[in-house]
Design brief:
Distance between the termini: 22 Å
Order of helices and strands: EEEEHEEEHEHHEEEHEEEH
Strand order of the largest sheet: 8-9-10-11-12-7-13-14
Oligomer: single chain
Structural class: alpha+beta
Helix content: 10-25%
Number of helices: 6
Number of strands: 14
Mean pLDDT: 90
Largest sheet: 8 strands, mixed
Length: about 270
């Protein structure tokens, strides 16, 4: 008997787990599989509605009593770096960018482990081994690149790896899926630099947005994203300027959450035929 995938993607909800951003809260995700010939269309459409990709899954926070996780993106045409961000660009001007296919290497994993041990030793990815790392990089059904950064001042070959970003190329922008960097260079603000460089990358490619993942009001881990100009958040079913970050503190209220069925019913799906 022949079996085929359904034309309409099926959506599921994960079991509650401790929230990594806000203490004392739990998180739950709405997700669907990303597979088949229409994977590119689905990734583009759902990314515009606040979803993120992790390997062959698209997900969006759907917590029972909180809607604080707000998808964020930068409008490339309107972005202007602030004074501090211009200093970051100057500090890291020696870095050379190379875009490669999504293929994991031992060098990347070594840097990844150093980054996790220094910055996220108690996080959900802390125990990731090299095989799981390879799956994170390589299991992608869409157009993905690994953006590597190396010190252009070093003459040895190959130059030491300084930073890496796993990046999806969407029809309206670039999506920074996951990034990591040399933790010994924290004073150079490499996390900020990677975002600034992706703005330049999108601008050169003629793409209007850089998708940053989620911004969470009240979370110190996510506060840096609010410092980028021309930042938009996906809230109330539409993209809107961030404005004053304090105006969004009410998203942690339990009455701010819509039922799962209503959330799914409002998702706009592409033509999957």
């Amino acid at each position: 008997m022949r079996h085929s995938l359904p034309l309409a993607p099926q959506f599921y909800v994960t079991a509650p787990q401790p929230c990594p951003y806000l203490e004392g809260r739990s998180e739950r995700k709405l997700f669907t599989a990303l597979q088949g010939e229409s994977a590119e269309k689905l990734n583009n459409a759902l990314s515009r509605q606040g979803f993120r990709r992790s390997q062959n899954v698209l997900y969006r926070p759907s917590c029972a009593d909180c809607s604080a996780c707000l998808s964020a993106r930068i409008r490339v045409a309107d972005f202007a770096p602030g004074r501090t961000q211009r200093k970051v660009l100057t500090k890291n001007a020696h870095l050379k960018r190379t875009a490669t296919s999504p293929w994991a290497t031992e060098e990347q994993y070594t840097l990844f482990r150093r980054y996790l041990d220094a910055r996220h030793a108690d996080g959900g990815m802390a125990d990731m081994d090299i095989f799981e790392f390879a799956a994170m990089i390589e299991e992608t059904p869409v157009k993905t690149r690994v953006i590597e950064y190396r010190d252009g001042r070093v003459t040895e070959t190959p130059r030491p790896l300084t930073a890496v970003c796993l990046t999806d190329v969407l029809d309206d922008g670039v999506s920074m899926v996951y990034s990591f960097y040399d933790p010994s260079l924290a004073d150079t603000s490499l996390g900020t630099y990677l975002i600034l460089d992706h703005v330049a990358l999108a601008q050169k490619a003629g793409l209007p947005y850089v998708y940053l993942g989620y911004w969470v009001p009240g979370s110190r881990k996510m506060g840096y994203k609010a410092r980028f100009s021309a930042l938009e958040i996906f809230k109330g079913g539409r993209w809107q300027p961030l404005g004053n970050p304090e105006d969004h503190s009410g998203e942690t209220h339990p009455l701010s959450v819509d039922p799962i069925a209503e959330q799914v019913a409002r998702i706009q799906l592409p033509d999957m035929r």
